[in-house]
Design goal:
It is a single chain. With 315 residues, the chain is of the alpha/beta class. 52% of the residues lie in helices and 17% in strands. The chain is built from eleven helices and eight strands. The chain has helices at residues 14-29, 49-59, 73-84, 104-112, 131-147, 164-172, 180-186, 210-224, 227-257, 264-297, 311-314; strands at 2-10, 34-42, 63-68, 89-92, 118-123, 156-163, 191-196, 304-309. An eight-stranded mixed β-sheet has the order 7-5-6-4-1-2-3-8, sandwiched between helices. Strand 1 (2-10), helix 1 (14-29) and strand 2 form a beta-alpha-beta unit. It starts with a strand and ends with a helix. The mean pLDDT is 87. Magnesium ion binds at residues 94, 96, 98, 201, 206. Uridine-5'-diphosphate (UDP) binds at residues 9-11, 13, 43, 71, 73-74, 77, 94-96, 98, 201, 206-208.
Length: 315
């Protein structure tokens, strides 16, 4: 029988894990002719998430768990899950039921039919989210899609179900700075988008502050576009052109009227302005250099402290 692996990254989800499992396993029982394994990845939680998961594993042999040595972030946790998934189909879901398990049968059918390699969920609205956050999110998608050749779909969740082939492709992208929305799209394959409304989390609270999201967005742009680097070159050319016009102007004025040594305040403004632009451009280059530095170190994306469960399959 075929196997479906459901990967659930959990960070301080003590309050949500049990409900997630109850809802999802109820749906999975209705799935025809497939075995299911759950892989809960405890991403260095500081609450009782791991003990809740271990209890689930005692009750149900289909539950496996991986505990990371510290908080590596959702991207790291997801990668850990993908590496350990044995399924012919692999699904990624949030622990807070914002990814409705009711969609699983539809996703599975889509991929199983062979017509698509991946069925992914995107939300069509941002109901229940602070308006400012939604606005920034929309701007982010506009900017990144202008800058990057990889299409980043607005509202795409990480909730998706993939074939083994696509999972293996994703595992070949071992970059340290992971931006999944881009990685899923970069590997290609045929993806069907299933639309759903925004659902608010069942329990606990979001791990993403506005600032964290902003940094994540910038990381995404740097990871999937080199367009910002071109800004420096373009600005350089623009200012060279301006300087050329200014030189001609100054020479002509000197020849015609003579004595043109004035305008010190405006000179100071120009120098400050250009210094600002230069530092800004060096900053952009620095960002890419920093990311390159982290990649070159070749550190592992996550470290495992312990793992277990899955008695159904391993023994
Ligand atoms: N998560 C994680 N590590 C982190 C942050 C989040 O594994 O450092 C998990 C979290 O437990 C949840 C999923 O990623 O299952 C999505 O997180 P959250 O619901 O906080 O994000 P939001 O839905 O608000 O975007
Ligand atoms: Mg959530």
């Amino acid at each position: 029988m075929e196997l479906l692996s459901i990967i659930v990254p959990c960070f301080n989800e003590e309050a949500a894990v049990e409900t997630f499992y109850t809802h999802t396993s109820a749906v999975c029982e209705t799935l025809p002719e497939i075995r299911v394994e759950y892989i809960f990845v405890d991403d260095g939680s500081r609450d009782g998430t791991l003990s809740v998961v271990k209890k689930l594993a005692e009750r149900d042999g289909a539950v496996r768990w991986l505990a990371l040595s510290r908080n590596f972030g959702k991207e790291g946790a997801m990668f850990a899950g993908l590496e350990h998934a044995k399924g012919d189909y692999v699904a990624v879901m949030d622990a807070d039921l914002q990814d409705p398990p009711d969609l699983l049968p539809e996703l599975l059918e889509t991929v199983r039919s062979g017509e698509y390699d991946c069925a992914a969920v995107r939300r069509v609205d941002r109901k229940g989210e602070p308006p400012i956050r939604s606005w920034f999110a929309r701007q982010f998608y506009k900017v990144i899609n202008k800058m990057s050749k990889t299409e980043i779909v607005d509202g795409a969740r990480d909730f998706r179900l993939m074939s083994r082939q696509m999972t293996d492709a994703i595992l070949r992208l071992t970059e340290y700075n992971r931006f999944s929305k881009g990685i899923f799209s970069w590997v290609g394959f045929r993806t069907k988008w299933v639309e759903t409304e925004n659902i608010e989390r069942s329990a606990g609270e979001s791990k993403w502050s506005f600032f964290k999201l902003l940094v994540y967005a910038l990381d995404g742009i740097i990871a999937f576009s080199t367009a910002p680097l071109a800004i420096a070159s373009v600005l350089g050319l623009v200012f060279c052109a301006i300087a050329f016009v200014a030189i001609v102007f100054v020479i002509v004025r000197q020849l015609l009227w003579g004595g043109s040594a004035f305008g010190w305040p405006s000179l100071v403004c120009i120098i400050l302005f250009l210094a600002g632009i230069q530092l800004f451009c060096i900053g952009i280059v620095g960002q890419y250099l920093a990311k390159t530095y982290l990649e070159v170190k070749g550190r592992p994306i996550y470290l495992l402290r312990e793992s277990g469960g899955g008695d159904n399959h391993e023994k």
